[in-house]
Design goal:
The protein has 400 residues and is mainly alpha-helical. It has helices at 2-48, 51-98, 101-106, 170-194, 202-223, 228-248, 261-283, 285-290, 300-349, 356-397; strands at residues 113-115, 130-132, 146-147, 153-154. The chain has 10 helices and 4 strands; from the N terminus they run αααββββααααααα.
């Protein structure tokens, strides 16, 4: 509805502009006819020989020409003002569309379709630039499994938990693609390593370097040399899966799944379960909870006061640090793609103005620079996520 309204308003402005031009041309034509009439009257006065009257009429004619020129100047000012108003209205309209929160965040968040190039952006059907994802679940937003009208669990509508429909979305598809890419790379790589073959070729050498770096510089220092081997498959999977999703987000039209708090929260929850399971398996449930408070060689009376406080802070921090693990990855990826979206939106805002010749090249250069930075951020955030995962596992194995 919003896109259709934009197209209608733009078309209406074009019609008004054409009507203004035709009216201006018509007024100029009438002014020409009036001037010709004045010249004919002056010529008649010359033939009749009324010199004095001719002078007076000629004087009056000059005044009329002066007044007519003044009126013409006033009409030109009104036309310029109207044109400026139309230009400002067009820019305001474009800013309201391209820089609106719905438009910017809509390009970054999850949806039920992939976006394709669309010209104009207010078209219909395929011209609107949408590739819809098949909806295979029997549940919909109007009739969800869980939600306001949920058939299994009905709860009050809120802004935190939407309707649960189990329909495939854009980020779900991207996660499946990312998992298939990781499997397609590392299953042959593992078979080659298991058989004793050395990686051959630039691609496999790059993969081997990253695998060895995560093992030697992330897992072993964070978990410990004696226990790192058991958790290496999990740490490797976390790193390469997050990296793949980050890189897929740089492909135009796809989107960054790690720019969704739902995706990063699911990854952080998986790390939380591994950490909890590891600590409980080694020390037992009670021993793991007890180990959250450090041993203090202090006065017994002070110890009775401090230990419960420290234990509460440590248990609370156990949940907080995994929540921060999700928010950190989400915020970095979301912010980077939002900045690119804002830059590109300026092209749409100035497309129908002369400013496009300056804004366009500047936006292209800025977008390339931000994308180069995003490429670096994609690797850094995958590394940070894997590094913190190793530290959390190591903290569960080796308590205070």
């Amino acid at each position: 509805m919003k896109n259709n309204s934009l197209g209608s308003i733009v078309a209406l402005q074009d019609d008004e502009h054409k009507a203004t031009q035709e009216s201006h041309e018509h007024n100029e034509s009438d002014a020409g006819h009036e001037a010709a009439g004045h010249e004919n009257d002056a010529h008649d006065h010359d033939e009749d020989g009324h010199d004095h009257d001719h002078d007076e009429d000629g004087h009056g004619h000059e005044d009329g020409d002066h007044d007519h020129g003044h009126d013409g100047h006033g009409h030109g000012g009104d036309s310029a003002t109207a044109t400026a108003d139309e230009w400002n209205d067009g820019v305001d309209l474009a800013m309201g569309y391209y820089l609106s929160p719905d438009s910017l965040i809509g390009h970054v968040q999850d949806s039920d379709h992939f976006e394709l190039p669309a010209f104009p952006p207010w078209g219909e059907g395929m011209a609107k630039g949408k590739l819809s994802i098949p909806q295979i679940s029997p549940y919909t937003d109007d009739s969800p499994m869980m939600g306001e009208n949920g058939s299994v669990w009905a709860y009050q509508k809120n802004d935190f938990v939407g309707p649960v429909t189990f329909q495939p979305t854009k980020f779900v598809v991207l996660e499946l693609i990312g998992a298939l890419i990781v499997a397609a790379i590392f299953i042959p790589y593992a078979k080659r390593i298991k058989s004793g073959e050395r990686p051959v070729g630039r691609f496999w050498n790059v993969i081997d370097v990253m695998v060895c770096y995560i093992r030697d510089e992330v897992a072993v220092p964070g978990i410990g040399s004696s226990d790192a081997k058991r958790f290496l498959p999990f740490v490797w999977t976390i790193f390469f899966f997050v990296l793949t999703l980050n890189l897929l987000g740089m492909v135009p039209g796809l989107g960054a799944a790690t720019g969704s708090i739902s995706v990063t929260a699911a990854l952080a929850i998986s790390v939380f379960f591994v950490v909890m399971a590891t600590g409980i398996k080694k020390m037992g449930f009670a021993g793991f909870l007890k180990a959250q408070a450090p041993h203090l060689d202090i006065n017994p009376i002070v110890k009775i006061i401090l230990v419960p406080m420290i234990w509460a802070i440590e248990v609370f921090g156990l949940f907080i640090k995994h929540a921060v693990l999700a928010v950190r990855l989400f915020a970095n990826m979301f912010a980077g793609h939002l900045v690119v979206g804002v830059f590109v939106a300026f092209i749409g805002v100035t497309w129908h103005t002369s400013l496009i010749w300056g804004v366009g090249p500047a936006v292209i250069v800025a977008t390339i620079a931000v994308n180069v930075l995003e490429l670096l951020v994609a690797f850094i955030q995958a590394y940070v996520f894997a590094f913190l995962t190793s530290l959390f596992i190591g903290a569960a194995i080796h308590p205070h």
